[in-house]
Amino acid sequence: MKRRLFMSRRKYLDTKQPKVKSIMGDFILIGIICLFAFILIVTQITINQPLSSLPSQSSVDDVKKMHDFLSIGNLAYFSMRTMFRMIVGMMWSILFSVICGVLAIKFKTARRIILPMVNFLESVPLLGFMTFTTAFLLGLYPGNVMGAEALAIFAVFTGQAWNIMLSLYQIMEVVPKDLKEVTSQFRYSAWEKFWRLEFVYSIPGLLWNLVISQSAAW
């Protein structure tokens, strides 16, 4: 009798533990999303200011002499601005990589254009992009700090988008044939094959490459 009670209790704990872990994982994911959303909203509000609000060189030198320049509040604000640029640049890089990667995989004509173009753009240094995009991006938000922020975000984008796109294309190209045959047997549509197989298969490599690309964009 005691043994049966022990076994039933053990089975109950074994079935309960995965549910608790999944709930904790959901809460952690929701917390991370809320944190990113808070950073994006607060930073978007604070940077939507005229360029005249930016400090001049003399005022910067005066502020550096003050004791509160490296206070916790200032460091938190500077870190939030930096994270805003990195997050937005990463989002645009992922969107670009998914669109161009899928087009290169599905269509031979697009592949002949996209792959040479991305390989060429990957070899261009950052200053090469800044020479012809500075005036354009600053002109999108004339007299506003958003223009300078857009320029910084574009610099982050160019530092990681090409590498992410090429890695995503290479991973999606080597999806095992037996998995593709399974999707064909289940009569998946082109969108279902991409969303349930190809994209899921490429997530581990995509996340690993995002970590490396973020350090390069920094």
UniProtKB/TrEMBL annotation:
GO terms for biological process: peptide transport; protein transport; transmembrane transport. It is a multi-pass membrane protein. Residues 94-217 form the ABC transmembrane type-1 domain. Pfam families: BPD_transp_1. It is found in: Membrane. GO terms for cellular component: membrane. Gene3D superfamilies: MetI-like (1.10.3720.10). The chain crosses the membrane at residues 27-47, 83-105, 117-138, 150-171. PANTHER family: BINDING-PROTEIN-DEPENDENT TRANSPORT SYSTEMS INNER MEMBRANE COMPONENT. This is ABC transporter permease. It comes from Lactococcus lactis subsp. lactis. The lineage of its organism: Bacteria, Bacillati, Bacillota, Bacilli, Lactobacillales.
